[in-house]
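User: For a benchmark we're assembling, each entry needs the component sequences followed by a predicted structure for the full assembly. Here are entry 17's components. Please fill in the structure.
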Amino acid sequence: MPKVLISDKMDPKAAQIFRERGVEVDEITGKTPEELKAIIGQYDGLAIRSSTKVTKEILDAATNLKVVGRAGIGVDNVDIPAASAKGVVVMNTPFGNSITTAEHAIALMFALARQLPEADASTQAGKWEKNRFMGVELTAKTLGLIGAGNIGGIVADRAHGLKMKVVAYDPFLTPERAVEMGVEKVTLDELLARADFITLHTPLTDQTRNILSAENLAKTKPGVRIINCARGGLIDEEALKAGLDSGHIAGAALDVFVTEPAKESPLFGTPNFISTPHLGASTTEAQVNVAIQVAEQMADYLVTGGVTNALNMPSLSAEEAPKLKPYMALAEKLGSLVGQLSHGVIPRISIHAEGAAAELNPKPIVSAVLSGFLRTQTDTVNMVNAPFLARERGIEVREIRTEREGDYHTLVRVSVKTEAGERSVAGTLFGDSAPRLVELFGIKVEADLAGHMLYVVNEDAPGFIGRIGTLLGEAGVNIGTFHLGRRQAGGEAVLLLSVDDEVSAELLAGVKALPGVKTAMGLAF
Ligand SMILES: NC(=O)c1ccc[n+]([C@@H]2O[C@H](COP(=O)([O-])OP(=O)(O)OC[C@H]3O[C@@H](n4cnc5c(N)ncnc54)[C@H](O)[C@@H]3O)[C@@H](O)[C@H]2O)c1
Ligand SMILES: O=C(O)[C@H](O)COP(=O)(O)O
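Assistant: Structure for entry 17:
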C-alpha cells in the first residue's frame, strides 16, 4: 500500500481521501529539515503547503518518493530540477485558492485605505481618536497590478466593481487579454508613476525578485499604498520601511515576507504598516478545495498512474507512454530553453517534428514544449493546461510534420517568433531515449540539457576556453559537461556548461566581464 506524509497543516479532507483511496497516510507537521530527512525515506508521496522546503537534500534522502503534491499554487519551496532529476512528479492545485487570495488583497487594500488595524487598536484602548484616522476612498483611484494572471485577473474584476481604474504591468499579457480583463496594459514605470494602490501577483523569479526595489519605489506616486499577497522577495523590505518612514509611501500591507515565518522585521511597528502571516490562501473554502484536489491527484498517481496538474511530467495514456516519454522529455527541455532565452511577448511558437518524430501523436509533444516554455513565466502551468494558457496569452501554436529524415533519424525543432526575428533550437534522441540539443539559434552544438547550466555567447578567439575554465575554477564551481559550437572560425560561438550548483550573480558578472563575451545566463532544467 503506498504511503503518504502530510507535512504541513492541511484540511482533514486530504487524509480522509487518501485513506478512502487505499493510501496510508501520516500527518506530521512542524518538522525541522533534519527531522524530515530522517523520516522521508518511508514515503511514496509528500503532501505540502508553503512551509515544508523540498530541497535537494530532502529529495536525496527520499529514496521511495514518487510524488510531491502542493496543496496550493506556489512551488518555489520545491526544487523542481532536483525532483525531475530523481523522477519525482511535482503537482500543484493551480486554481483552488485564487479567489480567496484575491479577496485577501482587496481586504488589505480596504484596511490600508481606512487604517483599520490601527483604528481598531486605538478604539479598543479606549482612545476614541475620531480625528486621527482620516481615510481615502477607493472609488476612481488607480490600482496598479504587477502580474495579471489568475489572481491578478480576479483582483482586477473586483476592483472594477469598486469603480477603480486598473492598469497592469505584465510583459506576458497580450493586448487582447488586457482588453478582455478591462485593464490598461502599461510599462512598469508608467504603473509606478500612476498607481494610487499597487498590488503584486507574480511568482518570485529572477525577473520579479525585488521588482519593487529602492529605485522603483522612489518612482511611485507620493502617497501610494502597496499590497503584497504574492511572494516575499518581490519588494525590498528595507526600502519599503524607508519609504513609509519618509511619508512618500502612505501605507503598505504584506502577507508574505522575504524570510518566513517572519518573527521579526524592521517593518513591524511602523505606522501605516499592516501584516498578516501568509494568510492569502487561508479560508475554509480554499483549504477544502486544495486539500481535496491534492489528495485526489496524488492518490490517482500512486494508485493508477494517472497524472494531473504535474509541473514536470506530461499526462499520457498507458499505450503511448513508452514511445512518447523520451520525446516529451526532449520537447519540455527545448521549450524551457527557448523560454529562458527569450524575453517579452512571443506571438508564435512552431513545433516541427522531423523523421521518426513525425510519426508520433503530436499533442503530447506540443504540450510538453509549451509547458517547458511557459514554466519560465508561471508556476501554474502543466501538460494539461499549457495549450490553454498559450491560447490565453495569444500565442499562435503551429505544428509541422515532415516524415522525410534530415541530418538526424529523428528531430524536434522549436522556433519562436520574437521582436528580433525567428529563433530556433532543435534536439534529437540518442539511442531512441536520451534527449540531446543539436542546434541552438542556428549554431550546431551537442549538449545534454540537465540541472544547472551556464550559457555564454562569445566571439570565437584563442584562449577563451582557458579563461572561462580558470574563472569557474577560482569561483569553486565544478563543471560537469562542456559543449561548444560556433557559426564559423572567428565568428559567434556558443558555450553550454553544466555546473553542479545554481549559477550565482557574482559568477555571471565575472563571465560577462571576460573579453569577447556578448551574453551570459544561468539556465536550469
Ligand atoms: N499569499 C498567498 O497565500 C498566496 C496564495 C496563492 C498564490 N500566491 C502567489 O501569488 C502569485 C500569483 O499567483 P497566480 O495564481 O495569479 O499565478 P499566475 O501564474 O496565474 O499569474 C502570474 C502572472 O505573473 C506574470 N509575470 C511573470 N513574470 C512577470 C514579470 N517579470 N513581471 C510582471 N508579471 C510577470 C505572469 O505572466 C502571470 O500572468 C504566485 O506567486 C502564487 O504563489 C500567494
Ligand atoms: O502559493 C500559494 O498557494 C500560497 O502561497 C498559499 O500558501 P499556503 O498553502 O502555505 O497558505
